[in-house]
Write a structure and sequence with these properties.
Layout lengths: L1 H8 L9 H13 L8 H34 L4 H21 L1
Length: about 100
Protein backbone atom coordinates (compact mmCIF):
# COMPACT_ATOMS: atom_id res chain seq x y z
CA UNK A 1 0.00 0.00 0.00
CA UNK A 2 2.99 2.31 0.36
CA UNK A 3 3.20 2.38 -3.42
CA UNK A 4 -0.37 3.63 -3.66
CA UNK A 5 0.39 6.41 -1.19
CA UNK A 6 3.43 7.36 -3.29
CA UNK A 7 1.23 7.41 -6.37
CA UNK A 8 -1.16 9.81 -4.70
CA UNK A 9 1.71 12.04 -3.67
CA UNK A 10 2.93 12.18 -7.27
CA UNK A 11 0.13 14.59 -7.99
CA UNK A 12 -2.48 12.33 -9.53
CA UNK A 13 -5.81 12.71 -7.83
CA UNK A 14 -7.03 9.17 -7.22
CA UNK A 15 -10.62 10.21 -7.91
CA UNK A 16 -9.76 11.20 -11.49
CA UNK A 17 -7.36 8.34 -12.12
CA UNK A 18 -7.75 6.80 -15.55
CA UNK A 19 -6.08 3.65 -16.80
CA UNK A 20 -3.78 5.70 -19.01
CA UNK A 21 -2.71 7.96 -16.13
CA UNK A 22 -2.15 4.95 -13.88
CA UNK A 23 0.00 3.27 -16.53
CA UNK A 24 2.02 6.47 -17.05
CA UNK A 25 2.58 6.77 -13.32
CA UNK A 26 3.65 3.13 -12.98
CA UNK A 27 5.93 3.44 -16.00
CA UNK A 28 7.62 6.39 -14.28
CA UNK A 29 8.11 4.32 -11.13
CA UNK A 30 9.57 1.50 -13.25
CA UNK A 31 12.03 3.98 -14.84
CA UNK A 32 13.08 5.12 -11.38
CA UNK A 33 13.61 1.52 -10.37
CA UNK A 34 11.03 1.67 -7.57
CA UNK A 35 9.01 -1.26 -8.91
CA UNK A 36 9.64 -4.24 -11.18
CA UNK A 37 8.38 -4.21 -14.76
CA UNK A 38 6.59 -7.51 -14.13
CA UNK A 39 4.42 -5.86 -11.45
CA UNK A 40 3.04 -3.17 -13.79
CA UNK A 41 -0.38 -4.63 -14.56
CA UNK A 42 -1.01 -5.80 -11.01
CA UNK A 43 -0.16 -2.35 -9.63
CA UNK A 44 -2.22 -0.50 -12.26
CA UNK A 45 -5.18 -2.72 -11.41
CA UNK A 46 -4.72 -2.06 -7.69
CA UNK A 47 -4.50 1.70 -8.27
CA UNK A 48 -7.67 1.73 -10.34
CA UNK A 49 -9.57 -0.35 -7.77
CA UNK A 50 -8.49 1.99 -4.98
CA UNK A 51 -9.54 5.00 -7.07
CA UNK A 52 -13.00 3.45 -7.50
CA UNK A 53 -13.28 2.74 -3.78
CA UNK A 54 -12.27 6.30 -2.91
CA UNK A 55 -14.78 7.71 -5.39
CA UNK A 56 -17.53 5.56 -3.88
CA UNK A 57 -16.58 6.67 -0.35
CA UNK A 58 -16.54 10.32 -1.41
CA UNK A 59 -19.96 10.05 -3.03
CA UNK A 60 -21.36 8.45 0.15
CA UNK A 61 -19.93 11.24 2.30
CA UNK A 62 -21.34 13.91 -0.01
CA UNK A 63 -24.74 12.23 0.04
CA UNK A 64 -24.72 12.05 3.84
CA UNK A 65 -23.71 15.71 4.10
CA UNK A 66 -26.48 16.79 1.73
CA UNK A 67 -29.09 14.77 3.65
CA UNK A 68 -27.88 16.24 6.94
CA UNK A 69 -28.01 19.77 5.54
CA UNK A 70 -31.50 19.27 4.12
CA UNK A 71 -32.69 17.93 7.48
CA UNK A 72 -31.07 20.78 9.42
CA UNK A 73 -32.70 23.33 7.11
CA UNK A 74 -36.08 21.74 7.69
CA UNK A 75 -36.59 21.03 4.00
CA UNK A 76 -38.82 18.11 3.07
CA UNK A 77 -37.08 15.02 1.75
CA UNK A 78 -38.17 13.01 -1.27
CA UNK A 79 -39.77 10.52 1.11
CA UNK A 80 -41.69 13.32 2.86
CA UNK A 81 -43.03 14.56 -0.48
CA UNK A 82 -43.99 11.03 -1.52
CA UNK A 83 -45.98 10.61 1.72
CA UNK A 84 -47.79 13.90 1.09
CA UNK A 85 -48.63 12.88 -2.49
CA UNK A 86 -49.93 9.54 -1.27
CA UNK A 87 -52.18 11.26 1.29
CA UNK A 88 -53.43 13.68 -1.37
CA UNK A 89 -54.30 10.75 -3.63
CA UNK A 90 -56.24 9.14 -0.77
CA UNK A 91 -58.12 12.38 -0.07
CA UNK A 92 -58.94 12.82 -3.77
CA UNK A 93 -60.30 9.28 -3.93
CA UNK A 94 -62.49 9.85 -0.85
CA UNK A 95 -63.80 13.13 -2.29
CA UNK A 96 -64.56 11.60 -5.69
CA UNK A 97 -66.32 8.62 -4.06
CA UNK A 98 -68.47 10.92 -1.94
CA UNK A 99 -69.67 12.99 -4.91
Amino acid sequence: MDLIKKAMLMGLGMINLTKEKAEEMVDELIKKGEIAKEEKFKIVDRLLKQAQEQEKELMQKISEMVKKTVTEMGMPTKEDLEKILKKLDEIEKKISQGS
